[in-house]
Batch of 4 targets.
Target 1
Amino acid sequence: MKLKVEKSSCNFEREPLVRPFGFKGGYMNQIWQVAAKLETSDGISGLGLGCQNVLWSDSRVFTSTSEPGGNALMFAITERALRMIRDTDFITPIDLMDRIFDDLYSYACDITGISNLKKTFVLNALVPADNAAWVLYARKHGLENFDRMIPSEYRPSLSYRHKKVASVPISSYAMPIREVVELVSGQGYFILKLKLGSPGTQSEMLAGDMERLEQVHKSIGDVDVSYTKNGKLPYYFDANGRYEKKETLQKLLDYAQKIGAFEQILVVEEPFPEEMTEDVGNLGVLVAADESAHTAKNVQERIKMGYGAIALKAAAKTLSMTLKMAREAYEQNVPCFCADLTVNPVLIEWNKNVAARLAPLPGLDVGLLENNGHQNYKNWNRMKTFHPYPNALWANERQGVFQLDEHFYEKSAGIFEDVMHYSKMVTGDK
């Protein structure tokens, strides 16, 4: 059945952060929350949310404009996509995104002034439109849960059914070590996403990262945990492409060996710039692609380069692209996990639906879901009230874990529910 959208609309609101959020050499102060609505001629509608992250998706846009200016450019791409959708028949949202992407990408290059704009920038802008299209698609076809909504050819890669998913907070290189200890000893988290890529030159960065790793390992390295094969607290490193040479990362890994931290490295995410095409399969650790894996084709390329895992971000690169990426990785027998984009409490459920259905990473007994919004949004508690099931067991982590019961799977984490706050934001109702 072909679908045709008759009406589309969108709006945004700015959500301030607790403190400037630093990575890739820049600092974010707010995140724009975008809501998009699609409606057919027979009155069936779908609402989709997105969180903009200009710095993560293409730092060149962030550094070439003011922070609001970069967000305005991304929002303009979302608006353009919604106009294009009104003129495009489609069978599935995947089909829809494929049909509009090339023209939308050309438009994005024009307005940003960057001819080789990273595709992730456009995908980030497309998330609210894509989510709205999936809700519309599900309602139009009477599909009441996430599993039935996913086209059959993509289901094998999402066939796992976790009862528990680890909630993974972030530890930036500026976070005081006492707060890192509190995350583990006080709040019960057993996996931390540790930001690498300290500020400065490559030599200064390496020295800073070595010092940080030693501090962390001395403070929490001997903590025993229940959900890993070796009973040790695993380290999840994210360098956001800051390591310009493989040799530099090797020095950090050699240092990890020296201080006894190497065996606890679960994964190193996106250590190198996207342009670096050296094989990474001989580093002795699981290396994951994130920003460099914009599309399923990129996943295939990265796997050939020795990348042993793929970070999926349904809330950052669209569910449509995520399904294609997950299928490609699954066919190559490469594991995936879900990373965050500092998303709001409602949008995290799109990521959670994916994380719940991915086979665990080697060394883990549970699923993995990065989740740092509660650490960074100033108004997190207020935002949590927008959630359709704010008090559900599966919506609230306990001791570093989301418990996924039958209600979670029955309700698909609430992604098909109308969220009144964001619905009013789009319609302009008070």
Target 2
Amino acid sequence: MLLGAHMSISGGVYNAIKAGVYFNCTAIQIFTKSSNQWKARELKSDEIDKFLKIKDETDMAVVAHDSYLINLGSPKADLLEKSREAFSEELRRCEVLDIPHLVMHPGSHTGVGEQKGLDTIVESIDFLHSKTPDYKVSITLETTAGQGTNLGYEFEQLAYIINKVEQGDRLGVCLDTCHIFAAGYDIRDKKSYDRTMKQFDETIGIEKLKVIHMNDSKKDLGSKVDRHEHIGLGFIGEAPFGFFLNDKRLKNLPFILETPKGEDGEMDRVNLAKLRNLIKK
């Protein structure tokens, strides 16, 4: 089973895989550059080669997440151009690192309205696809909590983007448990989980689901507040994560923790142990 956590690339992208091995992960998520800076440090050829070698040797599944500064739905021309350029660079980095999915929050309309924001995101993705016709890496839209003016908190919004993008077949979806819960999708019991996943399948299509973020929520159902909590210590509770882990439709997907790491990352070990205990033998 592909199970792990977001890992730091401090000292070199390959160090994230080493950290994943240390915590017995079979999958990890990384930033390919600093998540809170526009400028990207160049990936040297020896660093790339080392990353690819370790990834191959460990058979580690790796997905990436884009910078939080990027907003592909911005109504401001300068920020939109900057975001597109930055995202294009992140796609390039994923391509050379042989990372199949670049997870991204779709974008924020920042006050001009959801429809305008969604259409701008579609235009941005079409632009990015036109610049990367031969890339294997997939732009993977993440479900959001709906905080502020963030888009992607309704399955219908993600479906709209996928259906309107010219090459929608190149897109995937990342489901974040904390985000969908905060957005109002209940998953706390099996009946609610089944209802929510049925809605996802009918609206987007289960086959579009490529990555799952496993996060409990500090805030209650429908709060629209994005605050991750340790597994079992939030409003979702521990048991519902077993619904995802034991869903046969999801068995080949990477499950990634984005919970607080604690000192030296030891909370990753605690949270991963909780998840592993939920997997039916």
Target 3
Amino acid sequence: MNIKNVYILDDRAILYVSGQDTKDFLQNLISKDINKVTEKNSCFSSLLSPQGKFLYEFIIIKHKSGYFLDCEKAQADQLFKQLNMYKLRSKVEILDLSNEFVVATFSYTKFLSLENANGIEGFTLKYGEDPVFLDPRKKELGARLIINLEKLYLSLKKLNLNDANIKEYYTFSHRHGIVPKDLNKLQNKLFGIECNYEELNAIDFKKGCYVGQENTARIKLKNKLSKRLFPIKIIKGKLYKDESIFINKIEIGKVLIDSEYPFALIKYLDKNFDEKKNFQTKEASLNIIKPDWINK
């Protein structure tokens, strides 16, 4: 990322969860330990189905007496309803503040130039009254600022940042193996752990129970993880959602996101998988990109 650029993520939404029972409420639902979310540390997490399948992902930021949930705007309404469904009699209030707050992201290098900044993923400080934090997934994704819309451009001017094309950020995220958008296309199609959530710091295997914990732990402990979500690059042709990917007529994966920033669920341990090879679908030739932070 260019140190002078900032990307206004108008495709993101902000939910705010607060109330007497908020901490216990979230702890019983999400895949990350809510106790690790503090004024100085933000976390990436997910809400899975009871079977451990992907439903929603978000970044959690401590704010005043509650927590911001930074999520994809296309998922915000469903996530809002799902959280309210689980609320029951808990003393919790859930608000959609997307019309008031906006998310902006800028480079890791720029973040380190801020007073008291630290290069640890998730490290959080205040810029005025607003939280700014290093992306808890991968620090290469830079920092995120959650700020009231009315203060946004004045703050960016003070930070000497220039508004840049959001597609640059999407492309950067995709190249680094992070899904930038279209998360709804993944719902119930793969297990949360297959989304690389262990490597992206979204799963805490030492916390207590949460929704989907049983299957997530079983896949981990029994070493059953044989498929992963990888970005794909089209060489030529057109992709279609849910179609199979082949090499030498052997199925190696399935397209899940077929948009401008495509992803597929890949049998990455299969002896026929070789990231240096070209792969095919019915109408396309493509490369599968294995992120360098995947060790196996």
Target 4
Amino acid sequence: MKLRELAERLECTLEGDGDLDVHRVTGIEQAAPGDVTFFANNKYLAELRRTAASAVILGPAVQAPCAMLRTQNPYLAFARAVGIFADAWKPAPGIHPRACVAEGATVAADASIGAFVAVEEGARIGARSIVHAHVTIGRGAEIGEDCVIHAQVSVRERARLGNRVIVQDGAVIGSDGYGFARNADGSHTKIPQAGGVVIEDDVEIGANTTIDRPAVGETRIQAGTKLDNLVQIAHGVTIGRDVLLAAQVGIAGSTTIEDSVTLAGQVGVAGHLTVGKGTIATAQTGIPSSVEPGAFVSGYPAIPNRDWLKASAVFRKLPELRKAIAELEKRLAELAERGR
């Protein structure tokens, strides 16, 4: 592809030779002639200055030793460029002869159903959706249009997925919530988990993520939310729009995560609480109580990030502080003894 064409498709301002041939997008340190790279973090300024790429996607106030594609949002332009050069292969429409589709199921004519897929009674799969090998679509489940369901996914009975949903390998949607009632003798009786799971449009669900159904009501993931790998969403949870949950986040039952929240890796959220709109929680934060909208929290129990940074600095000094306090106590005791 000519660099000029790429600039036009990305809606970037081109500075340099538009007749250059470019073949792929790659990282700034690995880039070679014929590559396009991007610069969006000043930590990589040294790498930018010595890059061998033919062109770089960057912001308006930076210079590079090669052709430049300028934009106000380099990272977004980079994402679009990767899509332009990515492998566009899709499986052919139709049902693989080794798939098992129940008589009462409905599969759009232009959907693709891979080998060893099981589509159970009453399930529906929408137009242009792709279901890869070894997926199970449960009884009465619904898959919308233009979805991609990767291998080994289980979409349990009555779960509903909207349009353009992507589910990565091994995820489970609609598994039983963790609900038990204690008997008089201390044993436990399972509470039937008869509720539903709703995944709205444009949601992505990472590999080996699990989303539980509740006993009553529903678990809902609203439009545009992106879940990383190994995320656990418990029964009856509501996740708002455009939420980002990084790997190993765990959210306990009946909690509400409002719109545009970001939870970094290994954040844990207790049950029956609300995390307010726009909240950001840094990695390994524990959230035991509700959080006001717009908060920036860290640590366990979660406190404002600025306070946590101060506390962390003090924590490292605790051994020497303990020693200093012991010495002061000793001197005070000596002074008190002299004053008698």
